């Protein structure tokens, strides 16, 4: 019988029995599609009952997924959205038209399939992927945007045959699983390219272009490089986005190119009918984050005094974030920073604003990089700061020393941002107290 306590108990059970990659790292990584196919077969192959768009990439998947979902929703389509990881609520991963999957559905799914899960031991991500496919099929969505969890070729989501594949960009991340060169990582991501299905590449490098081109030729798929297409010179200022990070210029270009490719697809035109125009696209993008519930992308958690967060967590993402931070006109910049243990710290350290004051901390997860280790490396550069036991403690101590005109930035990992969001949701008037 469903109630909130039983829901929390069953959810906690899957986190315990089937640890997620985001929290514990490689111990939870389970490459290959056989287990996912078996689970999907048991469910009656729900992934075949709705149209899909498949998105992979090192950075930008979340923003691109949510922007496209907002546009399709505005065009009148019942739109599923499957992303990971979640920040605060598990149900953020699975949405229809911006609404999270009901707790009752999550509970019923976990209870129904508990014997199978205990017997067959699918991974945490396989369970959530199966749940998403099952939910989208039962709710008869018109289309679903499906974001890969890690890589592409061996990712659990790669059992689908989408209308369109999108690869946002390639950078060095999760190298122990995907490869230690950009070309190797590109080959893994290119694994989502399916026979005859067009693919949009958001950002391409000299070392990754041949990988994508060869795979597209092999699959007889049309390939478009967004940074070379007609939207290549687009600016965020040209669109009134509610996603304010400067880096959204890359994602916007990818989104517009992808929407153009979709609009030329006869099967897509059959479901969207005549409800498709540049006006719809522009109006949808104005409120994409609000409409779809996207959090943690250059988001002000508090306006006054300004507290800003961003989920950028690798060299590519943090380069853009730190660059934009440097452009802000503030009296003093404070940065609360923490990483997970498998990041390439040497690349990130060289990007950090040297004139900021740092609160070095760690997320409350097993995969977190020890704050003491991070602090030793950061402070060896001559950067000023101190170690804090938690994000909460960093915020509390910042309040004691802040002055008018200061800004606090919080980031380095999804989990650091999640803890900041949770803190301010629980303490909305913290700075007024």
Characterize the structure shown.
- The structure is a single chain.
- The protein folds into two domains: 289 residues, Mur-like, catalytic domain (UDP-N-acetylmuramoyl-L-alanine:D-glutamate ligase); 134 residues, Protein-Tyrosine Phosphatase, Chain A.
- 42% of the residues lie in helices and 13% in strands.
- The chain has 19 helices and 14 strands.
- β3 and β4 form a beta hairpin.
- It is globular and about 60 Å long.
- The two termini are 41 Å apart.
Q: How do the strands line up in the largest sheet?
A: 4-3-2-5-1-6-7-8
CATH architecture of the largest domain, please? Answer: 3-Layer(aba) Sandwich
- The poorly predicted ranges are 21-25
Instruction: Tell me the fraction of residues in β-strands, as a range.
Output: 5-15%
Taking the sheet with the most strands, its summary is: 8 strands, mixed
Number of strands: 14
Mind telling me the C-alpha Rg? Answer: 21 Å
CATH topology of the largest domain: UDP-N-acetylmuramoyl-L-alanine:D-glutamate ligase
Compute the number of helices.
19
Helical proportion? 40-55%
Category by helix and strand content: alpha/beta
Overall geometry: globular
Distance from N terminus to C terminus (CA atoms, Å) equals 41 Å
CATH superfamily of the largest domain: Mur-like, catalytic domain
CATH classification, class level of the largest domain: Alpha Beta
Offer a concise description of the structure.
By secondary structure, the protein is α/β, with parallel strands linked by helices.
């Amino acid at each position: 019988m469903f109630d909130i306590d039983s829901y929390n108990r069953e959810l906690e059970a899957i986190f315990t029995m089937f640890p997620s990659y985001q929290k514990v790292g490689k111990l939870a990584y389970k490459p290959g599609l056989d287990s996912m196919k078996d689970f999907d077969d048991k469910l009656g192959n729900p992934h075949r009952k709705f149209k899909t768009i498949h998105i992979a990439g090192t950075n930008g998947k979340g923003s691109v997924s949510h922007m496209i979902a907002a546009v399709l929703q505005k065009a009148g389509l019942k739109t599923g959205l499957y992303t990971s990881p979640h920040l605060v609520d598990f149900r953020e991963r699975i949405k229809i038209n911006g609404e999270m999957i009901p707790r009752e559905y999550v509970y019923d799914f976990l209870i129904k399939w508990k014997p199978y899960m205990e017997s067959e031991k699918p991974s945490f991500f396989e369970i959530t992927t199966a749940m998403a496919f099952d939910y989208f099929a039962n709710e008869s969505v018109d289309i679903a945007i499906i974001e890969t969890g890690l890589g592409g070729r061996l990712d659990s989501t790669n059992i689908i045959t989408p209308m369109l594949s999108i690869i946002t960009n390639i950078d060095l991340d999760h190298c122990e699983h995907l490869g230690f060169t950009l070309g190797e990582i590109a080959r893994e991501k290119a694994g989502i390219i399916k026979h005859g299905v067009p693919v949009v590449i958001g950002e391409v490098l000299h070392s990754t272009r041949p990988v994508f081109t060869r795979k597209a030729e092999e699959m007889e798929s049309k390939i478009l490089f967004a940074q070379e297409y007609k939207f290549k010179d687009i600016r965020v200022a040209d669109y009134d986005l509610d996603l304010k990070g400067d880096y959204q210029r890359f994602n916007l270009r990818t989104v517009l190119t992808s929407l153009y490719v979709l609009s030329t697809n006869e099967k897509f035109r059959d479901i969207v009918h005549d409800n498709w125009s540049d006006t719809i696209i522009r109006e949808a993008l104005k409120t994409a984050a609000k409409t779809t519930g996207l959090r943690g992308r250059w988001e002000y958690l508090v306006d006054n005094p300004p507290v800003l967060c961003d989920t950028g967590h690798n060299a590519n993402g943090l380069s853009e974030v730190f660059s934009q931070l440097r452009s802000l006109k503030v009296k003093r910049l404070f940065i609360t920073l923490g990483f997970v243990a498998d990041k390439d710290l040497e690349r990130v350290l060289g990007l950090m604003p040297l004139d900021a004051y740092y609160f070095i901390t760690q997320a409350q997860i097993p995969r977190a990089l020890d704050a003491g280790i991070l602090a030793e490396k950061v402070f060896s550069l001559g950067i000023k700061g101190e170690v804090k036991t938690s994000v909460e403690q960093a915020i509390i101590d910042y309040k004691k020393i802040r002055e008018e005109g200061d800004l606090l930035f919080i980031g380095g990992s999804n989990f650091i941002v999640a803890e900041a969001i949770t803190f301010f949701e629980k303490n909305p008037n913290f700075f007024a107290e």
